Amino acid sequence: MARIDEYGPVVGQAVIDDLRLLSEKLRGKVVQHINSTSVGGGVAEILNRMVPLLNDLGVDTHWDLIKGGEQFFGVTKKFHNAIHGQPGEITKRDFEIFRETSEQNIRDVSIYGDIVFIHDPQPVALVERKSGNKWIWRCHIDISNPDRRVWKFLRAYVERYDSAVFSAPSFSQRLSIRQFLIAPSIDPLSDKNKELPEETIEAALQKYGIVRDKPIVTQISRFDRLKDPVGVIEAYMQVKRYFDCQLVLAGGTATDDPEGMQVLEEVREKARQDPDIHILLMPQNDIDINALQRASTVIVQKSIKEGFGLTVSEALWKAKPVVASNVGGIPLQIAHKYSGLLCHSVEGAAFAIKQLLSSPEYARKLGENGREHVRNNFLLTRHLRDYMLVFLSLYYPDDIVYL
Amino acid sequence: MDALIRVADPFRFYTRMNLTELTGLSASTIGDLLGLIKTVPGSSIYHHTHRFLQQHQYLSPEPPNDFAHWVANSLGEDELGERLASVDTVQYPTIRALRAKIVATIEEHLRRDPRARKPFAREGEEFHFKKSVSFILPTAFVAYDLRDFAEILKKITIDSIYFHVFEARLRLERGTNDFSFWIESSFGEKALAGEIARLDPYTRTLDNLRRTLIHLIEKRIGEGNGADR
Q1: Which residues pair with A248 in a beta bridge?
Q2: Are residues A119 and A212 in the same domain?
Q3: Which residues of A touch B135 (CB under 8 A)?
Q4: Chain A residue whose CA is closest to B131
Q5: Residue A227 belongs to what domain range?
Q6: Quick check: A292 and A220 in contact, CB under 8 A?
Q7: Taking the model in full, what pTM does it have?
Q8: Roughly what angle, to the nearest 10 degrees, separates helices B146-155 and B206-228?
Q9: What is the tens place of the pLDDT at every residue in A171-219?
Q10: Same domain membership, residue A341 and residue A298
Q11: Which ipTM did the prediction report?
Q12: Which among B26, B55, B137 has CB closest to A21?
């Protein structure tokens, strides 16, 4: 695990010095993160990085999990989809299941933080344990157009927190508590993002039977309807009429996503006719993901909804040209035509991919701009700074704070 | 001028770190936008006229303010977009004055072209009002003479330069940037202070601003040393 000082060569020593200044102001406070899974998905990934680094900076930080069975995670998956505005039946029994498991967690989870940092809806009800300490609700998902009934149910909990944190401005809701905008981040030193020797990239390609004899178009994402893997295949098919290229769809599934395997089957079915489509189920193999991104000619993120879409920053950090949907946090990462191309449809994605395949110089410039944009805004060090600022904001209500 | 003159009242470099607060307020038309610009906190006006500078520092010069960018790109009102982008932020000593100018620019446009009230932003492209919460803290860097000062400018974060140049002048209403104030009041270097104060920091990238400041100070140190010989 990287130490904070190892980030100096990437972001500049002065940035690290500023983080240390800030951390001194949090001495004596205990920060407790709570979420529902320690593996799979962006939340676990970021906490695995953040918690050790905050401790390295001297902020006493801990990470705990709630428990829940298959039924509970089935319900929270339904909530997740409903918050994303996807229709689906949610029964009275679903709300009861959520409450029952929450009550068990309220009894069982030890709460000891001066600052309790709750991630996503699954553990939201723990706020009933609030007594004299500070509570933050961190929403990692796109909540711009939520199902009203589910949001009303969750909102009753959310408004008992001191502050809420969202990943994009469009997720902001009218709430009686303070709300902050904190984009997530990528770790430039992680296996997923560090520089790789050419042999490692080649070995990964060989492992998955991919030959670099034609351009590679790639989407790295969980097999989830909201990532629209079927739409990516359709866009690829439109491109394929003009460019002999290949498509890689690679990703895993999270332990709290029972729907993943079903989507994977649909994708395999759709891809069956074309040997140039590579469907790779590769749970948690970061070096291979990194290698696939680096070997790609164009990277796509055609999500229908997106909490943030960290794979976009991952691709940009590797200076890759990216085509991505204009949803959730993606437009924060891509300034259209400056650091990537945004699209709204399968046809739009196909057109943008064709543009990039036919204009390598333009594609290269977009990738370079993208890398600088990520360096300034979406690396872990900026994220650490924002989290420490949110912690401090709990004790200072003003817009200008002298520390 | 002797660059090694040490002054009793040194320059303490501060840094400021910004957190973005969401207001939950959004606009879909120019009318909505105008109404909210009049009522949101000054921290929100500050945020939307300065955010681009920091987040897209490599894409400057000519960073648009968020209002200009939105009316042009989401509503297709190019002319108003251009007028808002041309608001010369550096001319306004306070956020209040800057807000009044933005309001007057939009109102004038609507008077001349009432049709501009009609366009709606498509779903997902509404203007979301945010505000900047600034945390200001002293760094370990202190300069007693101009040579130290230039050396420190090479090392500190862009946030620190940003604080002393933009935030001190406009948001904290100190009238000028902190660098010019110290250089003039401590060394009597009126010309150098004026040269720095006249820079339009809004049309440069932040790294270019850093390089320009260092260049101006080092040039003055060089001239001083030559004159002394």
Answers
A1: A218, A278
A2: no
A3: 22, 389, 392, 396, 401, 403
A4: A399
A5: 198-377
A6: yes
A7: 0.85
A8: 160
A9: 888 899 999 999 989 999 999 999 999 999 999 999 999 999 999 999 9
A10: yes
A11: 0.86
A12: B137
